[in-house]
Every structure is written in C-alpha cells, then in structure tokens.
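Retro notes (design track)

What went well: tokenization of the new backbones is finally stable.
What didn't: we kept losing track of which sequence belonged to which structure.
Fix going forward: every design gets posted as structure first, then sequence, in one message. First example under the new rule, 133 residues:
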C-alpha cells in the first residue's frame, strides 16, 4: 500500500503499538524513519531499532520502552507538526520547547535530523517534524 506521509505513518504505528503494549513496532525502513528512530533512541524514548529484510521490503523494528509494573509507555504523545499540505519551519531563535523541556521536537535541518536541544546548540533551524513527550 502506498503511503503519502511516511513520517505520520511511522508515528501512528509507534503510537498504536505502544497503546497495545507491544514489544516492538514495525515500520517500513527509509532514511527518514531510520534518522527519526535514531533520535528517539538517543533521547531515551525507545529501546533501540534494527533493520531487517532487503530491497523494497526493508523493515525497521523499533523496541518500545515501558515503566513500572503497570507497563506505562514512556512515549505518551507523538504529534505530527509539519505535514505535506502545510510545512512548518522554525529559525534557530524560534525553535519550540515542548512542555518546558520535558518533551522533544524533532527537527529536520541542513545538518540532518536532530532534536530541538541539539539544533539550538548547533545554531540551526529547519522543518519541525513532530513533538514527542
């Protein structure tokens, strides 16, 4: 099935797998989804990821993290900001702070995909892809 917005598809798959308390979320592997998964892993929202398959059938298995005996998901909200119909850009001075620094904004910059904190440190802006907390 063709996907028009692979980032929104990835976020929805992670959100659904997390709400269903699955161990992993399986996402079609692209450069963008690998980069976003790497940022989520670096920020501690997911346990890790690995790529399986070859060619067009590559799959990214993202390990989800939970806390406590109730297995509450670490990721409570994934919100897509910039969409194909309405792109949202931010310069380095106006980068968003998500929940006062508790969450992160994933930014697509000229230096690659990174979280808002890293973009602020490097002094670059870009397209605000999503918020995670």
């Amino acid at each position: 099935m063709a996907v028009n917005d692979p980032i929104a598809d990835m976020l929805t798959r992670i959100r659904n797998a997390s709400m269903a308390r699955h161990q992993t979320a399986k996402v079609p592997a692209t450069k963008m989804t690998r980069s976003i998964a790497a940022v989520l892993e670096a920020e501690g929202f997911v346990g890790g990821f690995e790529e399986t398959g070859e060619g067009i059938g590559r799959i990214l298995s993202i390990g989800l993290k939970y806390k406590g005996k109730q297995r509450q998901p670490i990721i409570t909200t994934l919100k897509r900001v910039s969409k194909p119909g309405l792109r949202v850009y931010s310069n380095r001075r106006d980068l968003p702070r998500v929940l006062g620094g508790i969450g992160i904004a994933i930014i697509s910059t000229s230096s690659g995909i990174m979280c808002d904190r890293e973009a602020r440190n490097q002094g670059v802006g870009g397209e605000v892809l999503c918020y995670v907390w």
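Added context from the reviewer: The CA atoms of residues 70 and 118 lie 32 Å apart.
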